[in-house]
């Protein structure tokens, strides 16, 4: 087996607000909005928006009504700590940075080297509107 992720789904507090943000972000990361899909499973109190790419599908889900007012925190059990997207160069990380500064992303750390993560680890860290931490990283293979 090749350990490759097919899809991931992340629950957000407000799906409409998240959709507006991710409609701006996902094309910057290489996703085609023409391949975006939406679905509802009323029996499960569930809505999903999926951004489909040949490498991975990333979905965002509505919260179950019972959990709609819960705080999101990446250190809670079962929570997503952060999601990292692989870039093909340091310049690609810089280009993403210049574009996301205009879409409402909260910049945690601008692009820089992180030697504590690897000999050549260049990354940008930011959060979406719910505070979900995202990363764009280029790591040169030595």
Structure characterization notes:
The protein is an alpha/beta fold. The chain has 2 domains: 1-66, 2,3-Dihydroxybiphenyl 1,2-Dioxygenase, domain 1; 74-141, 2,3-Dihydroxybiphenyl 1,2-Dioxygenase, domain 1. 18% of the residues lie in helices and 34% in strands. It has helices spanning 15-28, 90-100, and strands spanning 7-11, 37-41, 46-52, 57-61, 83-86, 106-113, 121-127, 133-139. The strands form 2 sheets. Strands 1-4-3-2 form a 4-stranded mixed β-sheet, covered by helices on one side. It has a 4-stranded mixed β-sheet with strand order 5-8-7-6, with helices on one face. 18% of the residues are buried. The model has no long low-confidence stretch (mean pLDDT 95).
Number of extended strands: 8
**Class inferred from helices and paired strands:** alpha/beta
Range of helix content: 10-25%
| Estimated share of beta-strand residues | 25-35%
Distance between the termini: 25 Å
List the helices and strands and how they pair.
Elements lengths: L6 E5 L3 H14 L8 E5 L4 E7 L4 E5 L21 E4 L3 H11 L5 E8 L7 E7 L5 E7 L3
Parallel strand pairs: 1-4, 5-8
Antiparallel strand pairs: 2-3, 3-4, 6-7, 7-8
Salient structural properties:
single chain; 142 residues; alpha/beta; 2,3-Dihydroxybiphenyl 1,2-Dioxygenase, domain 1; 2 domains; 18% helix; 34% strand; globular
Summary of the model, kept short:
This protein is of the alpha/beta class. The protein has two domains: 1-66, 2,3-Dihydroxybiphenyl 1,2-Dioxygenase, domain 1 (Roll), CATH 3.10.180; 74-141, 2,3-Dihydroxybiphenyl 1,2-Dioxygenase, domain 1 (Roll). The protein is built from two helices and eight strands.
